[in-house]
Amino acid sequence: MKITVGIDEQEKANLFLRALWAELRKSFTKFSWSYFPSKDGKQNKVFFGFLNLGLDSTIDISINYKKKGGIKEIFFDGVEVNSVEGLKISKAVKNALQIYLNPEGYYCISVFVKSLYFPISFYKGTFFKVIPMNETEFELTLMIYAYDEIDTKSISKIIFNNVIDILSVETNQCFWLINNKRDNLRTEEKENQFSNEDWFDDYPIIDSKFLISEKTFILIDSFLSEIIHQQKLKKFLNACMLFHTARKYEAQIRDYIKTSDLKEQGTEYSESFKSEVVVSSMEVGIRDSNLFAANIVGAKQSEISMILYISSLEVLSILSLEETDNKQCRECGQKVYSISKRVSDFVENHNGKHIAKFIKEYYSLRSKYVHEGQHLSLENYSGISLPQLDSASSTGCAFNNAPPLTNLQEFIGNSFRKVINLACW
Questions:
Q1: What single string gives the DSSP state of each residue in 180-238?
Q2: Four-residue CA torsion sign, 42, 45, 46, 51
Q3: Residues 364-388: tens digit of each pLDDT
Q4: H helices of 29-108, where?
Q5: What is the Cα–Cα distance from 254 to 267, expressed in whole angstroms?
Q6: How does DSSP classify residue 320?
């Protein structure tokens, strides 16, 4: 059985498929896949696999396309058009075409999030809500447009990660989705309190909670309110993901968090990260057990973190390109523009020549690591420095330990927040 769909854009095509699967779940008692995707480029056809709807046999489902990523027609092999099953499937396709751009409603779903240091402060928007739970955790509730509960569970995993990636670039911190119970200490609801958008090398903390800016608050609400997103916003979210991942790798090197048994182990506290916006200092204790294990297993966190930080900046810099800028490559259609120059110009525009020069040095290090396998350091420090030459280094000397990435993180994080403030999408 063949049914015309006529959607040319991939994002809309995927929304249609989500709506269709939801409609089929409503129409049949069973819905399970033997998912074996493949593509026949010569026939412009994509094969999904075999769908079990509780019938006598599974259904071979595929689509063809006029434009890559789109759906011209959808095929249900083995189903007769006028059969009971064929009529139910045809109705499901018709319904999906009617609702895929306008889901009937949204679903409310909550998760618990753990921060490396402090929770996010209380915030309540139209489509999201943050409630601090205890010293490091907060509850994050989102309103998500979806087609049924199963669809909600699937898409929510992506959307929750998008939101905590945004929170990472907003606070220079890392967060994890966790399992938790609702019997933890909760903070009473109060007025939204926003951070100064211009903070740089400290942290926006009040009452041992991270603040976010009003522009970031608006960004999250706006992101959740739309089912179709602009390409620049999607690029920005990709960049946020790279930054957040880099921050997690960096945490394995230098970060420590508070644990409940610090005093029992006799660990001394130290204060750090004080600034005008910081009311409470961070208490730095023993390394969290998860970070400690990761540090032992991993060998090159500095290099990996540096690569991801620079890569996030590379993606972020795409947002600075105007639609009319530069020529396009005849082969791939991409803009002809030196990537390194684009990054350098972007950083200089937002942070000045000094920081642009600093970033350029790391950009060069990343290229040497990726293309030549050159490490950031010898990693041979054993309590005494042993100077060595390195002609490829900007100092002419080799490092016994990898240089700290704190400044790199702060400069790039600040660039993200300036992009948010400008709302480049």
A1: --TTS--PPP----B--TT--SS--EETTEE-B-HHHHHHHHHHHH-SS--HHHHHHHH
A2: negative
A3: 888 877 877 777 777 777 777 888 8
A4: 84-99
A5: 17
A6: G
